[in-house]
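User: My collaborator sent over this chain with a note saying "see what the structure looks like." That's all I know about it. Can you take a look?
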Amino acid sequence: MYQWLQVTTRLFYADIQGVPLGTLASHAPPAQVREATGLGMIGLLILAGGAHLILRHLGPSRSLSDGIKEFSIWRLFLLYLALVAYEQFLPAFAGLFGPLSEILVPAAQTKWVLFFLLGYACIRRREGYSYLAVAVAIEFVLGIGYFAGFKTVFLFLAVIVFAAQVKVSGRMIAVAAVFAGGLLILGSIWMTIRNEYRAFLNQGTNQQVVRVSRMERLQKAYTLASNVSLREAVQNVEAVAVRLSYVDLFAATLDYVPEQRSHSEGGLWGQAVQHVLMPRLLFPGKAILPSDSELTMKYTGIHFASGAQGTSVSMGYMAESYIDFGRYGMYFPILLLGAGWGAIYCFFVSRATINVIGHGFATAVLFNASRFEMTSLKLVGGVLTAFIVLALIQTYVVPQFLPWLMDDSTHVES
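Assistant: Without extra context I'll predict from the sequence alone. Here is the result:
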């Protein structure tokens, strides 16, 4: 869903503005922007098609709401808080465990499984909304940092609402419209304060680091945001649309390869597979990944700030697939990728004793594949690592906690 927005936002925005699509480009000629948009949409269709090829063999579907009434919303919330605490304290201790941190860090994504279960239970049962509101607020606050991480909770919430099959009504449409408008203004405010806020976070070092306390971060964000006028926020809506769209660098690649640099004949996807087959747990001497900007500059001919400036600008896995195999061959690895995502979904859902738990785990893992700009190396590595760790948790840890989560004899939901 988010990738569709990243590919089509500029198309719709250009239509609203009444201007040609290519005129909004910043890194590539208009013709390549139009082509990149079309290739991106086809690629996402093929990605979905690959997933469908696997999902059709899943067998008779069970209702997602089966068993949801047995869960204690209060205890789901408590376990969610415990996992939030684990995630926040983990960076201070992960270094003590060396390569084992490659297991401990992905395990923190179990937090999103609990968020999914909590949100789904609250919406389907129409109770416990206060717990969900607190969880959303926590994720929003924790997401305020160098990047716009605060948007993640709203994307996850949208997935939950779709999964809960909320009945569409006039009131629901109105609420959704107001919510979307609020997110647009929030994004516009972020675009307005982003540069000054980041300079404060890194204390002038121009690195992607945070050198101030969390309280100082929040105070600075509040101060800067409160000084943004509504007029300024509205004026930056176009900047939000341009930032959300992520086809420019794909277009620049189309313009540069193969005219200026030859196709890599599978080299980029090959590196991604090799990286996955050499986990740091078994190969502790594996080299640290360079900044994505290095690869982007190589295949677009455009200069970007790189690792020396603490910056990483990626082209996205779709552009890399084109670099490897050209306009037509690029879709073969995309099809395989979709099939892989479908297989991961089937694994979690088919092995879950309660259907919604499997959906929660699958959503948490596949959320790592939700961005169009991810490199193939980070995309495959991130999803596969999360899959292995969360599959172990679902298989061996969940059965230990499930009786407690479903025993609600001592607490009345509010």
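A starting point for your reply to your collaborator: The chain is about 65% helix and 0% strand.
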